[in-house]
Write a structure and sequence with these properties.
- Helix content is 26%, strand content 40%.
- The protein is built from 3 helices and 5 strands, in the order ααββββαβ.
- The protein has helices spanning 4-16, 20-27, 77-82; strands at 30-36, 41-50, 53-61, 65-72, 95-102.
- The protein has a 5-stranded antiparallel β-sheet, with helices on one face.
- Strand 2 and strand 3 (53-61) form a beta hairpin.
- The longest helix has 13 residues, at 4-16.
- The radius of gyration is 13 Å and the shape is globular.
- 18% of the residues are buried.
């Protein structure tokens, strides 16, 4: 069984220190980032190995909140790469973990 709590704790700590993008780049197989100037939110979609299996990790955050969702891959990673898909173009499978953090800014 994968310990999503440990990964969540690392993500929250990196977010609070302002180092979330570098943390995600370090642990992800592939990651894509997008920023909305209207909402001032950053969106991250990444393929991250956890416990010997690869998951789709979807993160939405700003200075005041962080939303983390971990989902299963819809197909094996090699098949997705063969099709030329990226994390942003891949629809996630079943959600296995979700966490939200809010803080006063």
């Amino acid at each position: 069984m994968v310990d999503f709590e440990e990964f969540k704790d690392e993500v929250v700590e990196a977010w609070r220190k302002g180092r979330l993008p570098s943390y995600i780049r370090r642990v992800a197989i592939d990651a894509e980032f997008a920023y909305s100037y209207q909402t001032r939110e950053t969106y991250v979609v990444a393929w991250i190995p956890l416990g010997g299996k690869v998951y789709v990790v979807d993160i939405e955050y700003s200075k005041r909140f962080l939303e983390l969702e971990i989902s299963e891959l819809p197909k094996p990673l090699e098949e997705l790469k063969t099709l030329g898909l990226t994390p942003l173009l891949t629809l996630p499978g079943k959600t296995v973990y979700r966490h939200e953090v809010r803080q006063n800014a």
